[in-house]
Specification:
about 575 residues; five-stranded mixed beta sheet; 14 helices; elongated
């Protein structure tokens, strides 16, 4: 679902849990025991993942000798499960010389504690969350009609001028709907655009609608083709052969005070429309919704250019949600649609695909100078805001979150990185995106099934990559510690130069720094996210002990899946 970022650039698209044990109750606290620490014996460009609970919550970095040593350390939660308020825990991260001569295990012991070791992350968002909860509940009902059954009613293919009544959410809680009368203004091979009969006359022009319609399903490359190649086909439960897009000020009404809140719903897809047996509010077919210009609205003015710019990203974003619902729920009978954090990451990735593939001809661009500005810019803005302080935000959204802008930035970055690693060698990542959408699996299990690797390992490597990508002085090492499709440092530096008010740093992520003496940090780790630290040991220095424990002094709980990811830079 698309929501608005309070920026002067473009409009964007739009689970903390205590640990629990078995039947006998919470797990007993595990003490910190640095005598069980393992020695980090890495050559430059090597990296490793460690479960601190298996190493006494401590690591020992050996004395560097005559040459300075530098490490990137990420203390994170590798939890990929979704809970109502998110998996999180308060932590304490310290770096100091050990109090006594080290008695740590040999370097070989690191392989044991690492497990699967390896070497070489407003109102509109609350609305999104509410829809996903309602959608999942509807999909799980035993009586929910499946799209693979015969169409419950047959709609003839629309023609321009056809009139139809739609049901649209009347509030961000979507406990009720309003009836919207609309008329078909564009009908193409795969899409039909209806316009609410009550929208202001100074809104979209006929040429605007024709342009965006052609961008959706006209000459290739188009948005329909981009999404269906990347993710798979949509359903056609009403057998009318087209996806319907309703442009209505009922969507604008979901954000009546966006000038104050800074958050605006630009469009949405609701899976209930593909489950006509679940509710009388279902539209019984493939429909998604988008806002219209409202330049004189006192609470939430929307210029024609702004609305026009957002249509392309909205269409390609919401269409992925529609495809995902079909692939997971209708075709494969999953009782749960894709989880919000991964679903939104894929839809923001769909925007990126539009920016990469659509012709740079200004059609339906709403004044944007190029497709990169129209489709990519807000993903980078969300990612920037996440990377400024990754620790403060989830990668794996809480069940109650529809994805804050920072969470969406994390989800896009993670999907982008996964597509780089498992996408078949193409920047489009099709091998990954089709596999992760065309399945009955969801969330963590889906990612692990497609990649064949544990979620905590992937999250740790991704966090390292978000610092090490094209880092000056970093050479060699695993491709896992890079984004092969983007040079993030170059992109963010260029955005900082052109839009410093939105991108105020040359690179958003600024790790803590320590020389191995008297470093201490407290905070909260959240599912998929954590704290970055650059540990520099001066030439001739001593052993450094790094401790990653719960804020109360015991080991972090198993539920948070604590991990220390370490890469030696030099």
């Amino acid at each position: 679902m698309l929501s608005h970022r309070p920026l002067t650039i473009l409009a964007v698209l739009a689970l903390s849990a205590c640990s629990s044990g078995g039947p006998s109750g919470p797990e007993p606290p595990l003490p910190v025991d640095c005598t069980q620490a393992s020695i980090v014996a890495l050559a430059p460009a090597q990296h490793i993942l460690v479960d601190p609970r298996l190493s006494g919550s401590c690591l020992h970095f050996p004395a560097p000798g005559p040459v300075e040593a530098e490490y990137a350390v990420v203390a994170l939660s590798g939890a990929g499960v979704v809970t109502p308020t998110g998996v999180s825990e308060a932590y304490l991260l310290q770096a100091d010389p050990p109090p006594d001569a080290p008695t740590a295990r040999e370097a070989g012991g690191l392989e044991h504690v690492a497990g699967a070791s390896f070497r070489q992350s407003g109102d509109a968002e609350a609305f999104h969350a509410r829809l996903r909860v309602l959608e999942a509940a509807a999909a799980a009902r035993p009586g929910a009609a499946l799209g693979i059954a015969p169409a419950p009613f047959i709609e003839p293919p629309p023609v321009v001028g056809d009139e139809r009544t739609f049901r649209v959410c009347s509030s961000t809680s979507c406990t009720s709907t309003v009836a919207v009368e609309a008329t078909a203004a564009y009908v193409g091979i795969r899409g039909a655009i209806y316009i609410d009969d009550t929208v202001p006359a100074d809104g979209f022009t006929p040429s605007d609608i024709a342009e965006v319609g052609q961008l959706f399903d006209g000459a290739t490359p188009n948005m329909y083709g981009i999404d269906t190649v990347a993710f798979g086909r949509e359903s056609d439960i009403d057998a009318n052969g087209v996806v319907i897009i309703l442009l209505t000020d009922a969507v604008n009404a979901l954000s009546p005070n966006c000038s104050v809140t800074g958050s605006r719903v630009l469009g949405y897809f609701y899976g209930l429309d593909l489950l006509p047996g679940s509710s009388g509010n279902s539209n019984g077919g493939e429909v998604f919704f988008s806002a219209v210009p409202a330049p004189t609205d006192p609470g939430c003015p929307v210029s024609r250019n702004e609305a026009m710019r957002s249509l392309g990203p909205t269409f390609i974003h919401e269409f992925q949600h529609m495809i995902s619902f079909n692939q997971h729920r209708l075709l494969r009978g999953s009782t749960q649609p894709e989880l919000t954090w991964l679903n939104e990451g894929l839809s923001h990735f769909a925007e990126e695909l539009g920016g990469r593939q659509l012709p740079d001809n200004g059609v339906a661009a709403g004044g944007a100078p190029d497709r990169e500005t129209q489709f990519h810019l807000n993903n980078f803005a969300n990612a920037f805001d996440y990377l400024v302080e990754p620790e403060d935000h989830f990668l794996v959204f809480p069940e109650q979150s529809g994805g804050t802008l920072q969470e969406r930035g994390a989800a896009w970055l993670f999907v982008r990185w996964l597509a780089d690693q498992f996408g078949g060698g193409s920047s489009l990542g099709t091998a990954f995106t089709r596999a992760v959408v065309q399945t009955g699996q969801v969330g963590q299990e889906n990612v692990e099934d497609v990649t064949g690797e544990s979620f905590d390992r992937l999250a740790a490597q991704w966090q390292l990559a978000s610092w090490l990508d094209n880092l000056p002085g970093w050479s060699g090492g695993s491709v896992r510690l890079q984004y092969t499709s983007w040079n993030l440092r170059s992109e963010f530096a260029a955005l900082n130069a052109s839009r410093p008010s939105v991108f105020p740093r040359v690179y958003p992520l600024v790790p803590d720094e320590s020389d191995g003496d008297a470093y201490e940090r407290t905070g909260v780790v959240r599912g998929g996210s954590g704290r970055h630290l650059i540990l520099t040991q001066p030439a001739g220095g001593v052993v450094t002990e790094v401790r990653f424990a719960a804020a109360g002094g015991d080991a972090l709980s198993a539920a948070v899946v604590p991990r220390l990811a370490v890469a030696r830079i030099r």
